[in-house]
Amino acid sequence: MAPMELLLIVSPLVLALIIFFSFRGTSKGGDKAEKIPPGTMGWPLIGHTIPFMQPHSSASLGLFVDQNIAKHGRIFRMNLLGKPTIVSADADFNRFILQSEGRMFENSCPTSIAEIMGRWSMLALAGDVHREMRSIAVNFMSNVKLRTYFLPDVEQQAIKILSAWRHGSTFSAQEEGKKFAFNLMVKHLMSMDPGMPETEQLRKEYITFMKGMASIPLNLPGTAYRKALQSRSIILKIMGQKLDERVEKVKRGCEGLEEDDLLASVAAQSNITRDQILDLILSMLFAGHETSSAAICLAIYFLESSPKALQQLREEHINIAKMKKEKGETGLTWDDYKQMEFTHCVINETLRLGNIVKFLHRKAIKDVQYKGYDIPCGWEVVPIISSAHLDPSIYDDPQSYNPWRWQTISTATSKNNNIMSFSGGPRLCPGAELAKMEMAVFLHHLVQKFNWELAEHDYPVSFPFLGFPKHLPIKVHAIDHKASA
Predict the structure, then answer these.
(1) Are 396 and 404 within 8 A, CB to CB?
(2) CA 441 to CA 155: how far, in whole Å?
(3) Is residue 48 part of a domain?
(4) Which region among 149-163, 292-306, 405-419 has the lowest average model confidence (pLDDT)?
(5) What is the pLDDT of residue 380?
(6) Is there a contact between 367 and 346 (Cβ–Cβ < 8 Å)?
(7) Element at 362 (helix H, strand E)
(8) Alpha helices by DSSP H, 80-223
């Protein structure tokens, strides 16, 4: 039989099966025996994966989610990545999911992400092993170490990045933000200095690695996913060499080794395996780099179109710098950081409206009942954490960038529970405070040195990872403090 004849016979059959399964998966209110949230299961195998993952403004939930909320409510069902899935845009349910980690729900990282990040990555782990890995990260980024160990380096790197900016020049703020965050993380994770050949090689491979994270997971020659896996191998080789150096120092009994970097700390104190150490370092590089760089870029983007907020922010930092000069102090201190009141309002509002992370992957580990709905054991659950940030019942005029909304203490206290940019519950990001500190320190120096404008129209987009289609091109103008004095 000729190929065309075979196609003519098979195509109607495939179409019929697709239509059959699509209607079979449609339900207004779930089964009678179980009150599963309403929704449809979409196309066989792929379900609703394509429309759900469609790029959209990070300051929105996306067309697909908005349409389903309008049709089914804030909790609905769908087929994501071939699995029956409950999607929640309900802030209360999302908090319940995050707080019930290990009791009713557990992490359910997609297989493709786990393969790239590694089986021992904190993104892929659950239960006791995750708690052990997370405790290492929490101890490494404790408030004590943020004050004495991280803060001076954060300020040094911010000054170094900004000192290379020239009046009237145009460049990608996204790339500058990524460079700033990457240099900080590799320094504190592995004592790798910015600009060195091995550091630049690692950064080059990491860029390729990240492109595969948001690609179609096809492990075929030439695909972004295959290239990402290859870059992962090179990255782990570089990290492995650094680990061997730390292990050798441990054997020689070098003093103060655990203070050098995270590799030194785990090599000296931990009983975890080599593979676990390398996956931990890679996952922390990913989390620390992506979150901080995105947050800084979002602040640059929102402040550019909010001159009143920028002016108040600038005045706060000029006053801090003036007081430090009068006291004969140079570098920023932890007290300085904590006293940046309006800066923290800017940070909160940037995280709220920018939505660095749109949703999380969880799985029900037992039958769960919530608000009259049954969540079957084994079903995937996707809490859309950005939904609380954009909910008009929680925030007045949620689409507006308004840092002043955070100045009312009672309002700020009640709303802090609804800021889920760093997840929540037992899986709260251990680097949340570090990311905020990096934002504050970078902004401290940026707003005193430069004004800026978008060189081209651009806006933050969820891919689902956050990014700017044009890499956030800006034109900077150096501030002449003598002229303004």
Answers:
(1) no
(2) 6
(3) no
(4) 405-419
(5) 97
(6) no
(7) strand 362-364
(8) 91-99, 111-117, 127-140, 143-145, 151-163, 173-190, 197-213
Sequence-separated (6 or more) residues with CB below 8 Å from residue 354: 58, 59, 294, 295, 298, 301, 302, 460, 466
Residue 405 amino acid letter = R
Q: Which of 175, 202, 204 minimizes the C-alpha distance to 189?
A: 202
Q: Model's pTM, two decimal places?
A: 0.90
Binding residues: 429
Q: H-helix or E-strand containing 57?
A: strand 56-57
Residue 139 DSSP SS3: helix
Confidence band for 21, pLDDT divided at 50, 70 and 90: very low
Q: What are the residues whose beta carbons fall under 8 Å from the beta carbon of 176, sequence distance 6 or more?
A: 161, 165
Shortest CA distance to 76 belongs to which of 30, 43, 13, 44? 30
Q: Rg (Cα) of the chain, in Å, rounded?
A: 24
Q: How many domains does the chain have?
A: 1
C-alpha distances in angstroms, 105 versus 343, 373, 408?
35, 15, 34
Question: Would you say residue 267 lies in a domain?
Answer: yes
Residues placed in the known binding site for heme: 429
Question: What are 338-380's pLDDT values in tens digits?
Answer: 999 999 999 999 999 999 999 999 999 999 999 999 999 999 9
The residue ranking higher by pLDDT, 408 or 167, is: 167
Average pLDDT on 389-413 reads: 88
Q: Is residue 20 in some structural domain?
A: no
Where does the pLDDT of residue 263 fall: very low under 50, low under 70, confident under 90, or very high at 90 and above?
confident
CATH code: domain of residue 358: 1.10.630.10
**Percentage of the residues of the chain whose pLDDT score is greater than 90:** 71
pLDDT at 270: 63
- Does residue 306 fall inside a structural domain? yes
Residue numbers of the domain that contains 298: 90-484
Relative orientation angle of helices 197-213 and 274-304, to the nearest 10 degrees: 80
- Asked if residue 214 has pLDDT above 80, the reply is no
* Mean pLDDT computed over every residue of the chain: 88
Question: 29 in helix, strand or coil?
Answer: coil
Q: Among candidates 107, 115, 285, which has minimal Cα distance to 212?
A: 115
CA dist 115 to 213, 215, 235, 291, 325, Å? Answer: 10, 13, 14, 21, 51
Structure tokens at 92: 């209360």
Question: According to the model, what pLDDT value does residue 25 have?
Answer: 42
Give kind and range of the element (H or E) at residue 454: strand 450-454
